[in-house]
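Course assignment 3, question 2. Fill in each field.
Student: A.L.
Task: Predict the tertiary structure for the chain below.
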Amino acid sequence: KTSGFNYSQSYLEHGYKELVIPPAKDGGWRIKKNALHIWPRRSFMIIALPNLDGSFTVTLFLAHKGPVSFEALNTDEKVMTFFQKEFPDALEVMPTLIKDWHENPEAPLVTVRTSPWHRGRSVIMGDAAHAIVPFYGQGMNSGFEDCFEMNKILDQTQDNWDQALELFSQQRVANGHAIADLAIQNFIEMRDSVADEEFLRRKKISKHLV
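Answer field:
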C-alpha cells in the first residue's frame, strides 16, 4: 500500500493436499527411497518424497474446481475411485488414504512478486519478497541466497546501509522473478512433460552428451 512499491500475488488453479505412504512393518520404505517419485497425469499429479522414519510424504496437486478437482472428490467413495483409476500402484501402499484425506486440508499455491525490496532502512527477503510455488525445490535456498548476497553487498559498500539496500534491490529483484518463473515452468514439466516420450528421449540424449 506504500506509493512506489509494486506487489502482486497470483494463484495457480491447482491446490495441493498432503498424504502419506507409511513405513513398512519392519520400519523400512515401501518403495525405493533414493528417488523422487512422480505420477504425472498431465493436468494433475502426485509426488512422493522419503522421510527418515521410512514413510513418504505424498502430495496430490489437483485443480481446485472442475470435473477432475478437489471440489469433485467430495465423498470417500469418489476419492477411492479416483485413486484406483489414476494411481493404483500408489494406492496399494497408502492404507491410510481416507484418514489422511480428511486430516490434511487442501491448500493453495501462490507466487508473490514485489519490487523494490527495500524502503528507507527497511528490507524484505525470502518469501516476504518472492514467495514461490514448491516445484523447483529452491524456495528456502533463495532466502538463504538473499542473506548471502546482502552480506556481500555490505562488504562491498563498507556497511553503508543506504547504498547497500539500494544495490540489493537492484541486483536481487530480477533473480526473485526468475526463480518464480522457473518454479512454475518446472510444475508444468513434472505434471506434463515427464509423461511425454519425446521429452524423455531428449533427457536421455542430453544426459549422454554431458
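Instructor remarks: The longest strand covers residues 6-21. The radius of gyration is 21 Å.
Grade: pending
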